[in-house]
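Re-running the complex after MR caught last week's input typo. The corrected sequence lines follow. Everything else is unchanged.
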Amino acid sequence: MSLTVVKKAAVLIIFLQTVHLVLWYSSVKGKPRAMYEQNGNISVNICPLIPQGLVGKINVEKSNTDWLKIESKYTMVSNGSHHPENCSARHKVAILVPFRDRESHLRIFLNHMHAFLMKQQLEYAIYVVELDKDIPFNRGFLFNVGFMEATKDKEFGCFVFHDVDLLPLNDQNLYQCPDQPRHMSVAIDKYKFKLLYDENFGGVSSMSKDHFKTINGYSNLFFGWGGEDDDLFNRIVSNKMIITRILSNIASYTMLPHIHASENPLRYEVLTTGKNESTQNKDGLSNLKYHVTEKIYRKLFVHIKVTINKADAIDQLKSRIKESSKLQKLFNLSNSTFKKKLRKHTRSRIKQNKF
Ligand code: BGC
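Corrected-run output:
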């Protein structure tokens, strides 16, 4: 090859590279850094790894604002969701909130959380899930329903399981799902900012979609207060995952005052009988049955109202526990109704040859 051909080729290559560079520069000029990543190639407009503008400690507005005021404040929120305008969010997060009779808490919660989540540049939606009043409250079951219903709406990769009365006090507490399940409400003012016990996974926690499916979600059998989060901890351990926590000065929360709900008299029994993996695989997302009576896409949240077959629930519980008198009390059943339900249960157990 003659020298002039080589020279011409070299000039052509330099020319093409310059054109490429000029084109690339003009396309990224003036745009935020997050617009391009990975070896400087223009790619999707991804939001920064650490959201900009986080300040640490934040105030909580606990005064009772009315719906109109909050709704008009959040003009950019619709259907309970929001996504950043200038970049594409790294995380798609569903915030699931079990709910009963706490309307004033819900308003304070939404007012605080929308501002908080927006700052974190997430693509998120808030789901408030409410069980028929006729059935005792069941936090774990409501999380399972929220998970299924949110998943129908969007490919959420991360789920935050959130009590309505807990509000984060630090905006650096990132609502994302790291490699392992995360207990987020490490330090709560009501408990003098001290973790109650190492295995605690209650209050606020987060898990990836895959992890939550792997552990078969929450148990559906904890009616009334307590135990469902301890059971979830057991599921995490059974599946060889670990719980992670960040520093307590960041993972800090304030709790809105409320009357303590009545404790589930069966919680220890359901907890201890649910420790083995085969029981965990049978009770959770895998056997979740519910009927959505309403799914309303309100401006600041998706409101899901749900009901279950009471007799079914009693049947399932009966196969796990011995203390039937407590079960009768829990479901507020008269003696005769309860006996009828028990007879039905016994008949079906005999049919299945379980005695
Ligand atoms: C209950 C948990 C609860 C924890 C902290 C435990 O006894 O079983 O459900 O989260 O106390 O209140």
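None of the earlier attempt is carried over here. The chain has two domains: 67-311, 322-351. Confidence is low (pLDDT under 50) at residues 24-39, 349-355.
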